Amino acid sequence: ASVTPGRLRRSFFCASGSEAVEGALLLAALHTHRPEIVAFRGGLHGRTRLAMNVTGLEMWRTDPFPLPGIHHTPFGDLQALTRLLDERGDKVGALIGEPVQGNGGIQVPPAEFWPAVRRLCENRGIVLIMDEVQTGLNRTGRRFACEHWGVTPDVLVMSKALGNGFPIAAFITTECNE
């Protein structure tokens, strides 16, 4: 809690980034009571069933029965994201993305992208989840990559560097009343 950005203070620890992603998405669904999730093409979020389904790389989505209510949009494209959110109305409860895409080709979004995504989520009551499994803990020159844009997500997912090879991960959020 002393190193996470903004008011992120409550951590749930688990063994892998995939589990942390699943926990973050469950938390968003419990908070919003909305069934749908938006993720970005090119993003990698893990190999468990839900994490695989939100992954935006076709070769990683091997679920023979894809889960409904998961939508992928181009990374860095605010117009496409806004159109998708307009189409889905108040069904979207969570938006998940890597601040900088790793397996998607080291994609850095335009400077205005994450601040605009933050505003879209706030205005629509959508939980913003940033998957910092690959970028967290000083891997981009800041403690968390989201800090490059001055954006604090509602839930932050971290792993890899957290354990320095030891299998540990976490998702971090605000206090219940915030």
Task: Describe the secondary structure blueprint for this structure.
Elements: E1 10-14, H1 17-32, E2 36-40, H2 49-54, E3 70-73, H3 78-88, E4 92-97, H4 113-124, E5 127-131, E6 155-158, E7 169-173
Parallel strand pairs: 2-3, 2-4, 4-5, 5-6
Antiparallel strand pairs: 1-7, 6-7
Describe the structure.
By secondary structure, the protein is of the alpha/beta class. The protein contains four helices and seven strands; from the N terminus they run E-H-E-H-E-H-E-H-E-E-E. It has helices at 17-32, 49-54, 78-88, 113-124; strands spanning 10-14, 36-40, 70-73, 92-97, 127-131, 155-158, 169-173. It has a seven-stranded mixed beta sheet, sandwiched between helices. Strand 2, helix 2 (49-54) and strand 3 form a beta-alpha-beta unit. The longest helix has 16 residues, at 17-32. The chain starts with 9 loop residues before the first strand and ends in a 5-residue tail after the last strand. 44% of the residues are buried.
